[in-house]
Structures are given as C-alpha cells and as structure tokens.
Amino acid sequence: MAKRPNILFILADDQGAWSLGCAGNREILTPNLDALTAGGMRLENCFCASPVCSPARASILTGMMPSGHGVLDWIRSGSVDSSLAQGELAERYIDEDKPIRYLDGLHTWPEVLAANGYTARCAANGT
C-alpha cells in the first residue's frame, strides 16, 4: 500500500489574516503560525463562505456553500441535549427534546479521510 501523506489542519477560530505576525502585525505574537508559514505556503487571497461562524464551519467540513448544506445562521436552539444544559442555560433549552441533525446525509472531509484509513489526533491549546 502506498504511503499516504500526513494532513495537518489548523483552524484558528475567528482569526483574521491581519492578526498574524507573518502578515505584518507587530502587536499580536503568533510565532508557531509564522514558522509554519515560513516553511510552507501562505495563501493571501482567500474568502470565507459566510461572515457567520456556523455556516462557515459547515462549509469547511463539507466544501459546500451555505445554500448547499443548509446551515444559514449560527447554530442555536435545537442542537443541544437539554439534559446537558445547566445553570443559566437550562431555562433556554427546557423545551429541547431532540437535536437538529444539521449535516445529515452530507459527506464531510473528515468522514472521507476516515473511510480511507486516516485517524485523527487533536491538539487543542498547544497540548
């Protein structure tokens, strides 16, 4: 079997290109991202599918525009199991009885990778 390449996917949530040292920002320190850029590729003409986080994230997962995957606004009521909501959130989700299956029936790139033998390792907050 041919050796598959490693895939490194980094998602810096809500981070604009202007907030990177490698883009000229001298106030925000991003040494690890700057080092990756220096030794790899930096795309400088990219666009987000949506200015709202949930549709943008669904687009990243599916490769589809929001009108194609159906997530058109931020995910709110309907996506939380009410038994998990505590404190202030409990009242907000009191009527929740089943979660909304946002991307049901759509293929995501993590699923395609898993079907081809890839496994995931997640490192959050530098750990």
Overview of the structural elements:
With 127 residues, the protein is mainly α. The chain contains five helices and no strands. It has helices at residues 31-38, 53-62, 66-69, 88-92, 109-115. The longest helix is centred in the middle third of the chain and has 10 residues, at 53-62. The radius of gyration is 18 Å and the shape is globular.
Cα distance, first to last residue? Answer: 32 Å
Query: Runs with pLDDT <50, length 5+?
Result: none
| Global outline | globular
Mean pLDDT: 81
How many separate helices?
A: 5
Quaternary state reads single chain
Strand count, sense and closure of the main sheet? Answer: none
Backbone structural class: mainly alpha
Secondary structure tally: strands:
0
CA-atom Rg in angstroms: 18 Å
How much β-strand is present in the residues? Answer: under 5%
Helix content percent band: 25-40%
